[in-house]
């Protein structure tokens, strides 16, 4: 089968490889669509980061480069291994793409398995990936999804789960007190910022977004995930948020850029005792204003990935509370991964939100 393989920084090759063997407790998934993630771009530009370098196998998967890429994917079950009685050939599924040690509790009550030692991801550290025609996955990480959800939209469940977990980390969730009437400020309308906004809107939160790109500001409005979208090069975001909240400030803020000036703006725009959630991956140290943190009694929280978030995220999509179709801005085949996909997202990222890849080429117009 054909697959996109990471060899090293700047070296991704589409090549023929043998399919993975079906083992006890696993199922084979014919991949329908796989999204290109910012993490994939970082591996291409600066890696290996999550991908294990050649000669340095990952301690859990035991694999090293080359590895198959792709961790945001949907597909159809094509083969079911022994030991599985609740999946059938033809089921539509998405994958929670974790690689986690066997002795870690990944049960439904766990809130920390995503923070376990040597945690990594299918499609980055081995065990196949979504940028291949099919992939074999352990049952624990496979989630069924209704046939009523198109498979291209289903490929966005994984990044949407990142947004869902970020919202949970903020203290606003469907399981707590109603968040309606709260105001959230999001710094950055990239894929994760937009999908976090979609979760917030589904919960009844008023969403304000700050974004430089005109196209992404318009996407937030067209998709209906933001009530107010601000251009920080033209307006004082802090003053605008103060006006919108009768001088109080935002209840929660989500940093989705890893840009210092955005972090500073969010801290200024939060109300006293507000919550700041850092969603983006920072590859450098921040000049954090500790005095402001103390004087406003801000609550700063990090968030990474998701933990038992997929079922609730899927419910939001299946119920129609979140429409993922506006965020799909391109569809390509595997041969266009670097020249069409990566190049667009690296050099013209303001023109795209989520580019999907069809490893088989099916569904490409």
UniProtKB/TrEMBL annotation:
Organism of provenance: Corynebacterium glyciniphilum AJ 3170
Keyword Cell inner membrane in annotation: no
PANTHER family in the record: GALACTITOL 1-PHOSPHATE 5-DEHYDROGENASE, SORBITOL DEHYDROGENASE
Name of protein: (R,R)-butanediol dehydrogenase
Molecular function terms, GO-annotated: (R,R)-butanediol dehydrogenase activity; zinc ion binding
Domain Enoyl reductase (ER): 10-334
EC class (word): oxidoreductase
Cofactor dependence: Zn(2+)
InterPro entries given in the database record: ADH-like_C, ADH-like_N, ADH_Zn_CS, ER, GroES-like_sf, NAD(P)-bd_dom_sf
Keywords for this protein: Metal-binding, Oxidoreductase, Zinc
PROSITE patterns, per the entry: ADH_ZINC (PS00059)
Family to which this protein belongs: Belongs to the zinc-containing alcohol dehydrogenase family.
UniProt EC number: 1.1.1.4
Pfam families hit by this protein: ADH_N, ADH_zinc_N
């Amino acid at each position: 089968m054909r697959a996109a393989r990471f060899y090293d920084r700047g070296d991704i090759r589409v090549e023929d490889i043998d399919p993975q063997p079906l083992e006890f407790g696993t199922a084979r998934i014919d991949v329908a669509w796989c999204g290109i993630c910012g993490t994939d771009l970082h591996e291409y530009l600066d890696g290996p980061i999550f991908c294990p370098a050649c000669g340095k196998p990952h301690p859990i998967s035991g694999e090293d480069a080359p590895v198959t890429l792709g961790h945001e994917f949907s597909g159809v079950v094509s083969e079911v291994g022994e030991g599985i009685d609740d999946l059938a050939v033809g089921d539509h599924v998405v994958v929670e793409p974790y690689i986690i040690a066997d002795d870690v509790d990944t049960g439904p009550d766990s809130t920390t398995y995503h923070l376990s030692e040597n945690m990594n991801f299918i499609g980055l550290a081995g065990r196949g990936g979504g940028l291949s025609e099919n992939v074999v996955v352990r049952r624990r990480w496979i989630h069924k999804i209704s046939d009523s959800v198109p498979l291209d939209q289903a490929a966005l469940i994984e990044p949407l789960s990142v947004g869902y977990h970020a919202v949970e980390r903020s203290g606003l969730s469907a399981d707590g007190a109603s968040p309606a009437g709260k105001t959230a400020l999001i710094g950055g309308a990239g894929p994760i910022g937009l999908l976090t906004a979609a979760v917030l809107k589904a919960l009844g939160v008023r969403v304000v977004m700050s974004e430089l790109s005109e196209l992404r500001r318009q996407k937030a409005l067209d998709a209906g995930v933001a009530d107010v979208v601000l251009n920080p090069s033209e307006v004082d975001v802090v003053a605008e948020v103060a006006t919108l909240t009768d001088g109080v400030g935002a209840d929660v803020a989500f940093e989705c850029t890893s840009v210092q000036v955005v972090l500073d703006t969010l801290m200024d725009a939060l109300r006293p005792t507000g919550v700041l959630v850092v969603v983006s991956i920072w590859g450098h140290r921040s000049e954090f204003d500790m005095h402001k943190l103390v004087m406003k009694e801000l609550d700063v929280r990090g968030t990474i990935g998701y933990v038992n978030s997929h079922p609730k995220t899927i419910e939001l999509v299946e119920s129609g509370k979140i429409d993922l179709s506006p965020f799909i801005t391109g569809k390509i085949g595997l041969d266009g991964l670097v020249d069409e996909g990566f190049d667009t997202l690296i050099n013209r990222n303001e023109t795209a939100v989520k580019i999907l890849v069809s490893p088989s080429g099916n569904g490409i117009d």
